[in-house]
Amino acid sequence: MAEDPRTSQPTSFPDEPQQPRPGLTTEMRTKPDHGEESYVGKGLLVGKVALITGGDSGIGRAVAIAYAREGASLAISYLAEEQADAEETRDWVDKAGQRCLLLPGDIRDRDHCAAIVERTVAELGGVDILVNNAAAQTMNEGLDSIDDDEMQGAFAANVFAMIRLAKAAAPHMKPGSAIINTTSEQAKIAGKSMIVYAATKGAISSLTVGLSNLLASDGIRVNAVAPGPIWTPIQPIAKSPEELETLGQDTPMGRAGQPGELAPAYVLLGSAEGSYMTGNVVAVTGGVPVS
Asked: Is residue 290 part of a domain?
């Protein structure tokens, strides 16, 4: 009998402490489910090499675990402060019998974007899948509360880095390769307290279509995944304990999603199972429409 999707995962997160940036899984009271005990691979990515930004935790970790179990070698990019989380992700990749190259640093640095692609190619033999997942989430009360430096940092991490990474990776990609960007339901619903974040995610959705049009003639597919409210370390950074406790309860599904529930979408878009999919934004939002 199928599980009830309304209750198969936690529906509330009481007493979750707030965290400073960048946020760590190791510091979360209620640990996210990244598919550690549930994801079963089917050999869909055997022999592939994937570079995942923000691969230390949250959605990135879930994708790393799924890709490893599908047979891919991995490189994961993350901030140096997230080393403990990155090492946990590497342990799960190791258990799946796959290589995991750790690439600490800040993708807001243009030289770092080029460097992590080059290291991936040099040490793992190429790059078949680029998962642009790392992001900075900013919150605001009103226009006056938007900090200019924070705004520029958000666009640097969420948008400019994606372009730079695609620019660096595409020359190494062969027909059948894939780029997968993480956008958000905020690209469409644009909550009033997330003006800058929503603007970056809207840019990512447009960027996905543009890159798809540009690279389709080379046999490279470009798609995006639009998550809804997902239980990751990004949540305790910006939201109050009261907001965290009820996260996702306003969705049609009535709860927040778990990172492991996103991984199958990234597997589909990165594998031959999605061979005729490009220029799409795949919503994993608990029922919130994004089109």
From this structure: no
pLDDT in tens, 98-107: 999 999 999 9
Q: What are phi and psi of 261, to 5 degrees?
A: -80, -15
**29 in a structural domain:** no
Query: Pick the catalytic residue: 67, 197, 266, 276?
Result: 197
Q: Which amino acid is located at 201 in the chain?
A: K
Dihedrals phi, psi of 282, to nearest 5 degrees: -95, 120
* Residue segments in the chain with a per-residue pLDDT below the cut of 50: none
Is residue 197 annotated as a catalytic residue, yes or no? yes
Residue pair 258/30 in contact (Cβ under 8 Å)? The answer is no
Task: Specify the pLDDT at position 291.
Answer: 77
- What is the DSSP secondary structure assignment for residue 70, as one 8-state letter? T
Report the predicted TM-score, pTM, of the whole model to 2 decimal places. 0.97
Number of domains in the chain: 1
Q: What is the DSSP letter of 257?
A: B
Name the DSSP letter for residue 49: E
| H helix or E strand, kind and range, residue 282 | strand 281-284
In a domain, 206, yes or no: yes
Mean pLDDT over the full length of the chain: 96
Q: Is 279 left (phi over 0), alpha (psi -120 to 50) or beta?
A: left
Q: Which helix (H) or strand (E) holds 284?
A: strand 281-284
